[in-house]
Amino acid sequence: MFEGCGTTIQQVRALTGKPILLSETAVGPRAGQFTKISDLFSGMRQYWTLGLVWFDKVQNNGIYHQDWRIENDPQADAAFRLGLSELNLARP
Questions:
Q1: What is the residue-wise DSSP string for 51-68?
Q2: pLDDT in tens, the chain (92 residues)
Q3: In whole angstroms, what is the distance from residue 45 CA to residue 37 CA?
Q4: What are the φ and ψ backbone dihedral angles of 52, each rounded to 5 degrees?
Q5: Which of 21, 24, 47, 51 is deepest in the core (most CB within 10 A)?
């Protein structure tokens, strides 16, 4: 998740020292949700982000056709809860 995001976060940090909020973030079920969600939270800790907004939607049109929700997948839900429990967010 953060392979390409780290560079973008560093570029934003060159413009401002304010905490960064990740918006419309999600991991589709085809991506290996448990590992990718764990990676997401690891990156959030590494880059000291403010938080995230999860894209919690079923997308039936367009090129992706994925269910981005995590509440229907016990492994995705567990990864998200574990990530939250270990997260120390930046303060605004």
A1: EEEE---B--STTT--B-
A2: 566 677 888 898 899 988 889 888 888 887 788 899 999 999 888 888 889 999 988 888 777 678 888 988 899 999 999 999 988 887 77
A3: 13
A4: -150, 160
A5: 47
